[in-house]
TrEMBL record:
Species lineage: Bacteria, Bacillati, Bacillota, Clostridia, Eubacteriales
UniProt GO molecular function: copper ion binding
Keyword hit for Cytoplasm: yes
Compartments, record wording: Cytoplasm
Name listed for the protein in its UniProt record: PF03932 family protein CutC
The organism of origin for this protein: Clostridium neonatale
Length: 250
């Protein structure tokens, strides 16, 4: 399974045309992904047959939320599910970087009441005890864990991902993400024995109105100061073709 990380309805369409079957739908990917708009969800469900996992995240930075933020997240979750989300990606941590089990249980219960999938996202990569954390997620019936193996990129964390897959892959789906692309996906899959990858398939497009003479709204890295990121159909297709070639060989 190839899951494409999307930041807009247009990204979802590009993923669909590139041959993807499942996406994680977000807003503000430059902040790590925030809760998407309802329009991006409903249009994607209307015009594609993609399985859509929606992010539930009210702000950037970490994952230790106050009561107001948690209230908003639960309301966002309900609205997304009522509008056709096939699952939700979320993460709740305590200040000591352990899983907030009380809030995780409440979110999982809500998601399951809609017969949708519960996905704990890369908040997991900030925990202080990955074994205790994944066992807690399994106990709470989380369906899938998105992780880079507690490293900046999944290839850096491949040993941890492999270990998690070997020990817990029959109890929770392990989805490897961060820095995964057509050049390294096959090697990562073969090394870790995972069956799911998460990729942004990111490219850049220019918008000359990003900066003026005295102000700017830039967020891209050097060389992309006036650009915004988007999902590339071509890069999605490269990943999908790798999968198809592997299946044909088998």
């Amino acid at each position: 399974m190839i899951e494409v990380c999307c930041g807009s309805y247009e990204d979802a369409i590009n993923s669909y045309k590139g041959g993807a079957k499942r996406i994680e739908l977000n807003g503000a990917l430059h902040l790590g992904g925030l809760t998407p708009s309802i329009a991006s969800l409903t249009l994607t469900k209307k015009n594609t047959d993609l399985k859509v996992i929606c992010m539930v995240r009210p702000r950037g930075a970490g994952f230790c939320y106050n009561d107001i933020e948690f209230e908003q997240m639960m309301e966002d979750a309900k609205i997304l599910l009522e509008n056709g989300a096939d699952g939700l990606a979320f993460g709740f941590l305590n200040e000591d970087c352990t899983i907030n089990t009380e809030r995780t249980k409440k979110m999982v219960e809500l998601i399951k009441s809609y017969n949708a999938e519960a996905v704990f996202h890369r908040a997991y990569d900030c925990v202080n005890d990955p074994i205790k954390a994944i066992e807690a997620l399994i106990d709470m019936k989380v369906d899938r864990l998105l992780t880079s193996g507690l490293k900046p990129k999944a290839m850096d964390g491949k040993d941890m991902i492999k270990s998690l897959q070997e020990k817990y892959g029959d109890k929770i789906e392990i989805l490897a993400g961060s820095g995964v692309n057509a050049s390294n996906a096959e090697a990562l899959i073969e090394y870790t024995n995972i069956s799911q990858i998460h990729s942004s398939c990111k490219d850049w497009s220019n918008d000359k109105t990003t900066s003026g003479e005295y102000v700017n709204y830039c967020y891209g890295p050097d060389g992309h100061e006036n650009d915004y990121d988007f999902v590339s159909q071509e890069l999605v297709r490269k990943l999908v073709n790798l999968k198809n070639e592997k299946e044909t060989m088998v």
